Amino acid sequence: MTSTTTAPSIRPVLMVLTSHGTKGATGGEPTGFYLGELTHPLAELEAAGIPFELASIQGGEPPVDGLDLGDAVNARYWNDSAFREALRHTQRLGDVDASKYSAIFFAGGHGAMWDFPTSPDAARVTREVYEAGGVVGAVCHGPAALVNVTLGNGAYLVAGKNLSAFTDDEERAVGLAQTVPFLLATTLVQRGAHHHPAPDWTAQVVVDGRLVTGQNPQSAAGVGAAMRELLLRQN
């Protein structure tokens, strides 16, 4: 899906979703990408006419979680036939030409913890976008995509960077600290990142150069707004 009203000369933002649909590697409760962590950033980008396209690790229709249609932004997108059609036909991330995009964004949802960090395509496209001067954004469990991204010099992208992600305390609060394959915030710190937690379920957005990250679903709109401002400033 590409938005129709575009800001002059800004290339699309690639919005990436998990294709992993269960809480666990071999089964368990259903999960996927968290709807509000896609729709709220999209609303911020579209308000400025910034175009976007959707991709997922495997392509096709990704599994959705957090389907809260009492949320007006979620409902607006979910009831939009063009948006739903785009979700049914996301690009496979491995087929993506990174040079087409001004930014890449990784939505969260627990599924991201299994396929984002192990995807060579996520690592490649993120590295190529970032090293071409583009913006990298992620929210909640979306930063799982960043834990294994290395740059051309061999350093982790997150090393020395200030960022925010779903905290270990939040993972314990939802009872999944023993289910996820690793604790996200701890692992990012092990990669050399400077993690900045806020109290559980409090909006927290951290911008470090062209890296924009948010802690939890409450941070999703703020991540989109910060990415929008960076992209407009670059334009």
TrEMBL record:
Gene Ontology terms: biological process: methylglyoxal catabolic process to D-lactate via S-lactoyl-glutathione; proteolysis
The lineage's top-level taxon is Bacteria
Kindly indicate whether the keyword Protease belongs to this entry: yes
| Gene Ontology terms for molecular function | glyoxalase III activity; peptidase activity
Q: Does the keyword Repeat apply?
A: no
- Domain called DJ-1/PfpI: residue spans: 36-220
The alphabetical list of record keywords is:
Hydrolase, Lyase, Protease, Stress response
Provide one Gene Ontology cellular component: cytoplasm
Its family remark reads: Belongs to the peptidase C56 family. HSP31-like subfamily.
Q: Which PANTHER family match?
A: GLUTATHIONE-INDEPENDENT GLYOXALASE HSP31-RELATED (PTHR48094:SF11), PROTEIN/NUCLEIC ACID DEGLYCASE DJ-1-RELATED (PTHR48094)
Protein name listed in UniProt:
Intracellular protease/amidase
Which organism was this protein described from? Variovorax boronicumulans
